[in-house]
Amino acid sequence: MTPASKKKAVSKEATKKKVTKKKVVKKTVKTKKAPTKKAPAKKAATKKAASKPAKPSKLDITPEERWKMIAIAAYHKAEKRGFVPGNELQDWAEAEKEISKLLLG
Fold first, then answer.
1. Number of domain units in the chain
2. Per the domain annotation, does 70 fall within a domain?
3. φ and ψ at 51, to 5 degrees?
4. How does pLDDT run across 8-63, given as a tens digit for each residue?
5. How far apart are alpha carbons 72 and 67 in whole angstroms?
6. Phi/psi of residue 33, each to 5°?
7. Which residue range forms the structural domain that includes residue 96?
8. Does 25 reside within a domain?
9. What is the torsion angle, in degrees rounded to the nearest 10, for the CA atoms of residue 72, residue 99, residue 53 and residue 57?
């Protein structure tokens, strides 16, 4: 063999190796990953939202409506104690605290 033919033979072998390397690379690229299981995040979020009601950002209650709520609560307090006179102011103050706590959170 002449040196020129040796170069051609070597270059043919080199190209065959490159081609086989490309095929191997293509085969590794085409391999698929096993499917992974994901936790159902949406279900957990909806359960939390459903179990805890959202607080309104602003209550649209007029002073008259608030006064009526306090009056009704004070009436129920007086009814529980048998409408004994002398504790009306205490009933009103307790009802006012309860309604304020209820409205403001």
1. 1
2. yes
3. -80, -25
4. 655 555 555 555 555 554 555 555 666 666 665 555 555 555 566 555 556 789 99
5. 9
6. -85, 150
7. 62-75+90-105
8. no
9. 120
